[in-house]
Design goal:
alpha/beta; two-stranded antiparallel ribbon
Length: 279
């Protein structure tokens, strides 16, 4: 089945708020950040009203929720303080997400900040090897990037190169992003099957655990990360709809990160319940 959800809030009541918002969108899944991207101490995860929220989610058949790691984490950084902060936060996030009982943490691989792609890849793998014990009950999902700046993980080869250097690589998975992939130069509008074939050859489709579903404000191969509402961007509704309903993406969480909060309408659009574009 198609499992659609969105990036939702944890304001005030934590996971309870996230589930209530997802119910209002008639979603099947959802994604949260457990801490602010502006830094500072995270709210204690024990205050997230976990049990009540999970009971409500089960009652509404909402499953496979996802946590996105803070953007402030950059394991590719050559700066010791930035790298050490990333190791600390991801280690803590694994504990927090394990408490919630979720299976997926999505993370941006990082930015090498001028040291070069090879150095960035090596640095990320080093950090993951410091963090992962092999006893984790979840997956660290590396998100595919758009090719902007000094980001690492823009190609399937770069993602694979990180994973193969991680000792406990069985804990590693991938989150694709339709906006990022198109902007990075993968023509998923006209040849999504070709992209999946390459992904399978280089990484393995068994590692594809999460997908971010976004249109793009910028054209093909723009190397810019600019999300747009479904059907309002350069990918277009027809291509995104084909991707969402592709057999390879069934049963994994498909998460909307589009602007404007039109999630209920976009979910209905992708389910074929309306033909009205959002926004």
């Amino acid at each position: 089945m198609v499992k659609l959800g969105a990036n939702v809030s944890i304001a005030k009541t934590g996971l309870q708020r996230a589930v209530e918002e997802s119910i209002s969108y008639q979603a099947d899944t959802y994604m949260i950040y457990t801490r602010s991207n502006r830094g500072g101490e995270a709210r204690p995860i024990e205050q997230f009203n976990r049990d009540q929220a999970l009971e409500a989610a089960k009652a509404h058949q909402i499953s496979d929720p996802v946590v996105h790691l803070s953007y402030l984490v950059n394991l590719a950084s050559p700066k010791p303080e930035t790298y050490e902060y990333g190791v600390m936060i991801l280690t803590e996030e694994i504990r927090r997400v394990s408490y919630l009982g979720f299976r997926y943490i999505v993370m941006h691989p990082g930015s090498h900040v001028g040291t070069g792609m090879e150095a960035g890849i090596e640095r990320i793998a080093q950090g993951l090897n410091e963090i992962l014990t092999g006893d984790e009950s979840l997956y660290i999902c590396l998100e595919t990037m758009a090719g902007d700046g000094s980001k690492v993980g823009n190609t399937v080869e770069e993602i694979a190169s990180i994973i193969e250097r991680v000792n406990h690589h069985d804990r590693m998975a991938v989150c694709i992003d339709t906006c990022h992939n198109y902007s990075a130069g993968y023509d998923i509008v006209n040849d999504f099957d070709g992209f999946l074939t390459q992904f399978d050859k280089v990484i393995g489709l068994d590692r594809l655990k999460v997908a971010h579903i976004n249109d793009s404000k910028t054209p093909f191969h723009s190397k810019k990360d600019r999300h747009e509402n479904i059907g309002r961007g350069s990918l277009g509704f027809e291509a995104i709809n084909r991707i969402v309903h592709h057999p390879a993406l069934q049963e994994i969480p498909l998460i909307l990160e589009t602007p404007g909060g039109h999630y209920r309408q976009e979910i209905a659009l992708l389910r074929g319940e309306t033909d009205e574009l959002p926004g």
